Each structure stands twice: as structure tokens, then as C-alpha cells.
Amino acid sequence: MSQILIIEDDATFAQIIEGFLSKNNYVVEIAADLNQAFKLVEKQEYKLLLIDYRLPDGTGLDLLKYVRNKGQQVPIIIMTSFNDVRTAVKSIQLGAFDYITKPINPDELLMVIKGLLEKKEPQKTENKDLIKGKSDVSDRLYAHIDLVAQTDMSVIIQGESGTGKEFAARTLHNESKRKNKPFVAIDCGALSKDLAASELFGHVKGAFTGAVNDKKGQFEMANGGTLFLDEIGNLSYEVQIKLLRALQERVIQPLGSNKLINVDVRIIVATNDELNNTMKTGEFREDLYHRLNEFKIIIPPLRERGKDLELFIQHFINIANKELNRNVSEIAADAKALLLKYDWPGNLRELRNVIKRMVLLSPDGVATIQSLPEEMTIAVEQVQLPNSSDLKAINEVNEKNLIIETLNKVKHNKSKAAKILNIDRKTLYSKMEKYSID
Ligand SMILES: Nc1ncnc2c1ncn2[C@@H]1O[C@H](COP(=O)(O)OP(=O)(O)OP(=O)(O)O)[C@@H](O)[C@H]1O
Which stretches make up the Sigma-54 factor interaction domain (predicted)? Predict the structure, then answer.
């Protein structure tokens, strides 16, 4: 039986990965588009899906949603070009386990795959891996966490993807009087609409087709402890009603059962968005929001955490050195400058991944700019828009960015790029020279 399914329309690239992974003892199958992939995942369960983001008949996110709606928890890695990193971040919110940016470094790919297949809980966060940061925003954040941890209040943790919401929830639990009881984390983004109620509240045999045995819900599993509901905004309206009842009456009713079970669970939820917006459209119940919002903690994005960034860089280098048996003790000045300038849309998760890759690619102990994704430089250049009303300068920056983006898209095939840009090759060459693009 195949272990890994690669969904990639670039046949040569797919075969290269297949060859590489087969050499490393993985059994691999390839699908060239979504249509083929849908059929394959219908037929069998894979251990891991490696999905290209841009596919001829849709995007990798379509397959991600399809698989998660079927209730399959299979680890999924999305492969994106760097320009799609922001979309990749969204894929994590939708239940992907990780993303990896093209051009793909085989060792990095292997590291990510091993991490997902060989560890039971790949994202398990341990207390020793946590650092608090030294910026003013961090001080405020942890003062709030310390304060509310001692209480039984429900908490909403709000922050962009990868800012450390689950870490914060675990810290709250570990500092509370419930610390010796279970901490149960559920990603509501990865739960199908049909399975969410049964996952949370359990079911009895025969409650619905496929309910072949009684099943305890996560509420019961967390009894006495803390239940962390990530991406709470994804819960359906019906499940929101059940959740509100559980919170107000401290009882749950498994699907298909008429027995009420008493539960004592502290609820912490996390969301990427301001839930207020979904409340206005009626998707999120106002009464539930107010019940949950006894205390709100907002985690700032990494780009607003000032001097914490350097601290986190060093912290992730230490972790990666240990994990990969490396000894990176120095970062070249240009690489350091790039790390500090980049805006980290994927926040701490993205930083951790980039640093791990950097450490992996620096066997001699000094991290150079070559060990950072080339596209980070492009992203940094793209945001350096001239801060003036100089129309010519602005147009030139836009032109340069468009050329770089297009060249990346067509893997530096100049004829293709010129065609897309609707200019001849000669003009493209002269513009590349003018903007020092190589
Ligand atoms: N305080 C911290 N100290 C060290 N590492 C951290 C800290 N907070 C987060 N991280 C790292 O960042 C990664 C992302 O954190 P976490 O999963 O908590 O983010 P999140 O906001 O819950 O993400 P998502 O929105 O995608 O659910 C973690 O795996 C961990 O490696």
C-alpha cells in the first residue's frame, strides 16, 4: 500500500520527488491533478499527502478541505511558491500540518516528512521550548496570562496564524489549578461539520451511520481540565448551540443518547479573526461569544514584537541545533539583516521553519544568506516601495516586482516570461539589466 500521495502537475518534478522519497524507503504514488487525487483518496487512506498549491483544476486547498470534510486526519503538507506563502498560512488554518516553499530542498522535505510521520504528535509543545519574550507587548501578554490562569474564566485568544495561540493556551493550563488534569486541544478547522458534534460530545452506538461503537467526546476526556478549541469560528451553528448549553449548564449529551453527563471543563478558544465580524453576519452566535469572552488575550504578530524577534531566532537555532545535530553559532550579517527585515506573515511557525531549514543547510556552523529561501529577499524588496509621490519611481518598483514575480512563476524561462508580460525578449533583457535582476 502506498504511504505518500504526491499531487503535482509538473510531471518531472513529481518524479524527482518520487525517486528521492523511494530511495528513503517511502512508497509513493503520484496524482497529476485534483480529479485524480479525489479518486485516489476515496479508494485508500494515505499516511501523508504532499500537495502542490497550484493545480490545473483548482488549488491544493480544495483537496485539503475535501479530505478534512471526510474526517481524515492524515498529515498534509502544502508545497507553494514563496509568493503564495500567505495562502499557505491559510492552509494551516484549514488543517494542513505544514507547508514547504519551492524550490524544494530535498533534505528539508525529508526533514518535514520525517517529523510528521515519525512523531506521534508533531506539533506537541513542551514547556521547556517556550520563551516569553522581552518586549513591552510580551510583558503585557504574560502579565495577562498569569492573571487569568488562576481563575476559571473562559478565555478567547486572538491572533494571526502561527503567533502562538496554542502555546499560550497550554501555558494558561499549566499555570492553573487544573494543571494535573488533561489539556485537550481540538482544531475545529480540521473537523468536518458532520463529525464535530460527535467529536466534542461523543455518541452512542447507532446514533448515525458509521457509529458502530459508543464513543466518548473530548468534553468528557477533558473533564476536570481544560478544553482548547482552536479556530472556534469554524463550528457550525448547531454545534455552537450545543457548546453554549454545555458551558451554561455544565452538562453534555452524547449524540443519540438521552443521558446527561456532568462535566467540569475550562474552555479556552482561539481565533484568527475578530469574531465580531462573523457575529455581525450571524455566523457566530452572540450569546456564545459573550459566554466565551470572559477574558480576551490578543497575541501580537511577530512583526510587532520588536526585540523579541532576535530572541526567537536564537531560541529556534538552539532547538534546531539539538534536533539536527548541528552547531550553528553565527549568522552572516546579510542573512541576519534579512531575518530582521522580513515581515513574517506566518509568524512564529514560519520563523521556526525557516530557522530549521537554515540550520540544516549550515553544516559548518555559519548561517549564510544562501541558507535562507531566496524568495525572502524578493518579498523584502517588494515591500520597499518608494515613500513618495514620485510616480516614475513607484512605477519602476512595480515593474521590477512584476518581472521578478513572473520570472519566478515560469522558473526563469525568459521567453515565457516575456510572453506573459507582453514585451519582447530584448526588452525583457534590457529591463532585467536596468533593475539588476539575474
Ligand atoms: N512562546 C513561544 N516560545 C517558543 N515557541 C513558540 C512560542 N509560541 C509559539 N511558538 C512556536 O510557534 C509554533 C506555532 O505556535 P502555535 O501552534 O501555538 O500557534 P497558533 O497561533 O496556535 O497557530 P494557528 O493559528 O495556526 O493554530 C509552535 O509550534 C512553536 O514552535
Answer: 131-360
